[in-house]
Amino acid sequence: GNSVTQMEGPVTLSEEAFLTINCTYTATGYPSLFWYVQYPGEGLQLLLKATKADDKGSNKGFEATYRKETTSFHLEKGSVQVSDSAVYFCALFLKGYSTLTFGKGTMLLVSP
Amino acid sequence: KAGVTQTPRYLIKTRGQQVTLSCSPISGHRSVSWYQQTPGQGLQFLFEYFSETQRNKGNFPGRFSGRQFSNSRSEMNVSTLELGDSALYLCASSLGHRDAGANVLTFGAGSRLTVL
Fold first, then answer.
1. Alpha-carbon gap, residue A84 to A78, rounded angstroms
2. Neighbours of A18 (CB within 10 A)
3. Scanning every residue of chain A, which has its alpha carbon at the shortest distance from the alpha carbon of B39?
4. How far is B42 from B103, CA to CA, in rounded Å?
């Protein structure tokens, strides 16, 4: 089956620290990959995406590179801010399915 | 343009009751998906509707049902509520292209259901 595995949280960082949230996937086909973010009390927002191997998605200082050989899509940011505190979800989409498969989410807490 | 609108945002029910949640998608989007979010299970796919037809279904009991109207608005219903149904129910809309390289889902803020 299709699945997404994320590192367990919470991840606790100080402001301006480097962030990595690991994400690996298992898929029966060739998926597109996404990172969504959920701020407290809100729904999910698309953060970035990549549709083929070696693509790099980026947005708001966050980056993730689609690595087919390691089936990974790790999220990185060079310098986190308090406002980045949220839950981050990695997800995959397979052609022909029209639904997203999500990881369990990783909470990020950034302190000043 | 307006985002995905879910109503009600919060509701409290008792065991055995039923509930109906509503979702208005982004204009032009024909696909509506529903997800249940709980602390223990994370985000679980309930079902997806496209042009008034259920196109995909997750692994939930028959107490969970949905429908989509001709204007793409969708409702989901949960009958005979159980304590374990307490969750945030998220709706997401998209163009619904199955062959697209990346079918971007736009989520609503969710309906938080508490079952007492």
1. 12
2. 10
3. A104
4. 21
CA distance B30 to chain A (A): 12
Contact predicate A15/A82, CB 8 Å? yes
Quick one: which H or E segment has residue A89?
Answer: strand A86-93
Chain B residues with at least one Cβ partner in A under 8 Å:
4, 6, 31, 33, 35, 42-43, 45, 48, 50, 55-56, 90, 92, 94, 96-110
Task: Say if CB A32 and CB A51 are below 8 A apart.
Answer: yes
Dist CA A18 CA A63 (whole Å): 12
Measured distance CA(A91)–CA(A96) in Å, rounded: 16
User: Which residues of B are less than 8 Å from A36 in CB distance?
Assistant: 107
Determine contact, residues A109/A39, Cβ cutoff 8 Å. Answer: no
Summarised one tens digit per residue, pLDDT across range B23-78 is 999 999 999 999 999 988 889 999 999 999 999 899 999 999 999 999 999 999 99
